[in-house]
Structures are given as C-alpha cells and as structure tokens.
Amino acid sequence: MIDTHCHLNTEPLWSERDHWKHTLDDLDAVIVVGFDRLSSERAMVLAQQHANVYAAIGFHPDSALEWNDAEASWLISATQMPKVVAIGEIGLDLYRRHDTLEAQWNALRAQQAIARDAGLPVIYHCRPTAESNDAYDLLTPQLVSEASDVRAVVHCFGGSPENAVALWDAGFYTGFDGPLTYKKSTLLREIAKACPDTRMLVETDAPYLSPEPFRGKFPNLPECVRQVATKLAEVRSMSVDDCIEQVDANARALFTGIVR
Length: 260
Ligand SMILES: [Zn+2]
What we know:
Blueprint: E1 2-6, H1 17-20, E2 29-33, H2 37-49, E3 53-57, H3 69-78, E4 84-93, H4 101-118, E5 122-127, H5 134-146, E6 152-154, H6 161-169, E7 173-176, H7 186-194, E8 200-202, H8 225-235, H9 240-254
Helix pairs in contact: 8-9
The structure holds zinc ion (ZN).
Residues 5, 7, 33, 89, 205 line the site of zinc ion.
C-alpha cells in the first residue's frame, strides 16, 4: 500500500526518524512532501536512505515569500535527482495569510512551469479562510484553464462538490486523508463517494491529521493510510482490498517515478 503524502521531513518525525523508520516496512511506497527548501532537501535524503521512500519537492504557499530566482534554479536542478517523483506541495493558503496572495500566485505559476518542463506531476495544497471556500474557488479555475496539461492531485481535498467535479472533469486527482474519517465530514464523504474510481488517492499528511480511531494522536504515521483506505472503501461500498488495489494503481499512474 502507498501513502502518497506525508511529512517525515518535519518534527517530530524528522528528529525521531530512527525510532519510526520500522513503521515504513509494511508500505510499498511513501511520498515525503517538501514545503520549502530545507524540507525538500530532507525528503531527498530520506528517499536516498529508504528504498520505499520517494520525494516531492517544492515551495508551499506559506513559503511564498522565500521563492526567488535562486530557489527556482535550485528546484529546476533538483528535479533531475533520483527518486524525485513530483513537484509539491504548492498552491494557495488563505487560512494563514491573505497578504501574500500575489506572492503565492507567483510561486504557484512558476512551479507549475517547472513541473511542466520536467515532466513531473504536481501535488497541490489548498486551504481557504475559515468558514469559506475562497482558496478553492480561486485555485480550481486556474488549474482547469491554465494547468490541466500537468498531471496533479489536490491533496487533503476540502473544496466544494462543484470544485471536485470541475477538477475531475479536467483530469485531476483528489487526495483523501484523516478528515474523511471524522464525524462531521459528511460533505467530504459525499464527495469521496462520487469520486470516479480512477481519480481517488489516499494519504496521511503525517504527522498531522491522524484518522479515527486515532484522532488527536500525534504524531500520525504513514501506516495509518490503511484507516483512510478502510473508510474510503466503506463510503464507496467496496471491499477494502479492492479499494487499496484501486488507489495504489492510481498512485502509480500519477506518480510514475514509483518503481517498487
Ligand atoms: Zn502536506
């Protein structure tokens, strides 16, 4: 089974990686996702150390003010490194900052172009202002109109059903994680039920977002991707084995750099 999105490159998992590494043994592949220069470099280090670990590299919207020509040059060269399977996570985050929106768009578009040139898929992060759908209503039309030629997932999906349908129609994948298992996530489960078989992925976002029955436990771990897949199977009235087979096939179709 594959965890398509986690952060073994952040605390406490990075400092305690020797303590946690045995928990990766039962997974076929784990994608460690960068959010700035340091975390991207750490993802590449982990990919070199572990046969089943792969790296995604990029600048998260929270790091948009760090994006500049030097970082762009570094990112372009790093796309050539072995086991780099995606650009990400990149996107828009209006939950933490509205004031950097222009810088967020700039970093987003520049990294889309780098992914296109490198032939790599993209992992998008999108987080709206609380009680709003603003970031999804901005990002969705941009992806559909400007970037549907770049294969991609919108990870930890939290947009509207209309956003989801527009993204699926344009060929984008949807990433589901811990929130799918939370009691209040009725709308998200409806979206997961409606998702085309070939457009769904599962992930943990570890150390964050522990799924039920471990909600609130920190850190979350990649192995808990099974709980997410189990809930996805339940929502879609399919067997857990069939669900895992489908999401793993989808992960390999999107992240073609996964060879294990
Ligand atoms: Zn993440």
